[in-house]
Each structure stands twice: as structure tokens, then as C-alpha cells.
Amino acid sequence: MRILICKFAGLRGALAVSASLRAIKEVHPGANVTYITLPGVEMATRGCPVITETVTYNLNSTVSQFAALISHLRRQDFDYAIALSAHRTARTLVAFSGATRRICAGKAPFYLAPFFHQQVRGLLVDPHEAARDHAIFSEIFNISAEVPPMWYASSRMESHGLLVEPQKYLVIHPGASQPSQILEIDKWAQATRELLSAGLIERVVVSAGPASEERIMADALCGLIGPAASSTRGQLTLAQLALLLKEARLFMGTDSAILQLASAVKVPVLGVYGPSHYNRSRPWGTLSRSVRIDTTMFEGEDLNDYNARMNRAMGRITAQQISRAAEDLLRISKA
């Protein structure tokens, strides 16, 4: 069975889809998936063995490039094509893909509706992205309604080359999707020093992406923690980071794609959440704890006042909250 999935979302979007693809593989072992997404996301799709081809497409591409992609898709003779994101380009690609059965997640625009055999909408499900995607797939394929964990296969991981002993170290990823979701590094440092003093971990690896801001933040955090800490300095691929996370004792981080990767490799996860969509991006399918602030809008609160309060929200989270949650998670996972 050949399946086309078109979803213009980032790394976390691809990781969310992996949960459903795990379920499809169990019911349809011969399934092969072509996944169309944004450039840069292929590093996440490589972790899912069901995805045999990843096609990256720039949404600013020319008409001739769009036509070339349509031509490529029509030659594949897909059994199913699914527009999993609401983006107009995703729906158009699926509508003209030539697949035997074409499905749109949500309501298709009137000018594309005749090209779809099925529109999946109005589902009442868990708001987590993995659960929402799975609800759509369960309407299309004969798979269980229970959402499995996300999936980054061990066979797709690569050696990271860091001198750390498995199950003896903690990984922290202090970067976040938005600046308002970044926690002060002195709080990470204080919580981590408490875990080291208690003997719950021996080493700390601070994860950083290739951006200079993340590398500087990671180096500063290592300096505050002390000699037990080292940084990845943005030099690991996602496949190498996946193995580093899988062999860790614990992962701690804020709302980011790396937190979702940690969930996918099933390391215990401590998530720290400020003004973010917690229900949609919380840890999924692994042992976890969360430290978060209430993002409810007060009755009669002005929108500008609310936004200003949310921008200061991470300041209300304490190092003690993080260390207590981490200690609890470490003891439970050890048991």
C-alpha cells in the first residue's frame, strides 16, 4: 500500500505523525509512505522507517516547480493521499496527486472539494497534535483508536561520540520555540546542581542547536553548573541527538521540538511550560512530569495586560519546583 501524506509543519509535526504511522505499520506491514513537508523537516522523518521518501517543498516555489511536483506525484500511483495540514498548497497537491483515494483533513475549499473522496472533520479528540493526527488516520484506515507513542526508531539513530555513560547523565535543552518560553538559565543551573548534589545524576549534557544564541546560552549554563556539565555546541544531527536522549537518565526542557523528540525515544521527560499550548505540546507516550503556569485569562482582563503578564510568566517558575519534579521523576523511573 502506497500512501502520500502532505503536512507543512515543523519537526514536531513530523514527530506527531510518527505515532499514527507506527499503528498503520502494525495493521499494514507493507505500507510505504511519501511525506511532503517543509525544508529541514527531513531530519525528523528519517527516524520513521515507514517513510520511504521525504519530499521537501518551499512554499515560495514557482509555478513550474509546483507543476513538476504534481507530475512526480501522479507517476507514483498512490493508493491514498492525505492532506493532513490545512494549508492551501497541501490540499492542492493532494487534490491533483492522482491517488486512488484522496482525503482532506478538515473542510476542503469549494473549488477543491470535488477532487476529494473524503473530508474528515468535526472530531472530538485530545488536543495533542499526535492524537489529532491519529484520529484522522483512524477514520481512514483500520487502526486502533488508541494513540501509540511517537516513534524515532533505534535503527535510525547515530553515534554521538560524547564521552558519557548511559543512564548516568541528564540532558537539558534550554532553548524554546518562542523567546517568552525560555527559562532563566540560573534556574536550570540551580535545579541541576541540586540533582548532582543528591547523587541522582553524575553528568549533565546541555543540548544546543546550531544558532549562535543557543550555543552561547548552553555555554553559559555549563559555566553555572560546573565541571560536570558539557555542551553539544550545536554539532549533533537529530539522529545523534536521538541516541543521546535515548541513553539519558532524564530530559529537561521547555516547549520545543527537542522535547517531542525526547518523548519519541521514550526517555523520562520533565517539561517546563510558560505561555504555550500545553495540551497540544505536552510530553506524549513516555513517563513525564510538567512544571507550568496557569495561562487562563482573568475575567475582564485587557488583552494587552494579559500578553504582558504572559511575557513575564516564566519568571514565576522556581528552581525548587523543577528540582522537586525532577527528583520525583528520577525515583519513579528507577523503580
Question: Can you give a write-up of this model?
Answer:
The protein has helices at residues 11-27, 42-45, 63-74, 88-95, 129-140, 185-197, 212-225, 238-246, 257-264, 278-281, 303-311, 319-334; strands spanning 2-6, 32-37, 51-56, 80-83, 101-105, 118-120, 169-173, 203-206, 229-231, 250-254, 269-273, 288-292. The protein starts with a strand and ends with a helix. The relative contact order is 0.13. The longest helix is centred in the first third of the chain and has 17 residues, at 11-27. With 335 residues, the chain is of the alpha/beta class. The strands form two sheets. A six-stranded parallel beta sheet has the order 3-2-1-4-5-6, sandwiched between helices. It is globular and about 65 Å long. Helix 1 packs parallel to helix 5, helix 1 runs parallel beside helix 9 and helix 6 (185-197) crosses helix 12 (319-334). The chain has two domains: 2-154, 3-Layer(aba) Sandwich (Rossmann fold), CATH 3.40.50; 157-334, Glycogen Phosphorylase B (Rossmann fold, 3-Layer(aba) Sandwich), CATH 3.40.50.
List the helices and strands and how they pair.
Blueprint: E1 2-6, H1 11-27, E2 32-37, H2 42-45, E3 51-56, H3 63-74, E4 80-83, H4 88-95, E5 101-105, E6 118-120, H5 129-140, E7 169-173, H6 185-197, E8 203-206, H7 212-225, E9 229-231, H8 238-246, E10 250-254, H9 257-264, E11 269-273, H10 278-281, E12 288-292, H11 303-311, H12 319-334
Parallel strand pairs: 1-2, 1-4, 2-3, 4-5, 5-6, 7-8, 7-10, 8-9, 10-11, 11-12
Helix pairs in contact: 1-5, 1-9, 6-7, 6-12
Q: What keyword list fits this structure?
A:
335 residues, alpha/beta, Rossmann fold, 6-stranded parallel beta sheet, 12 strands
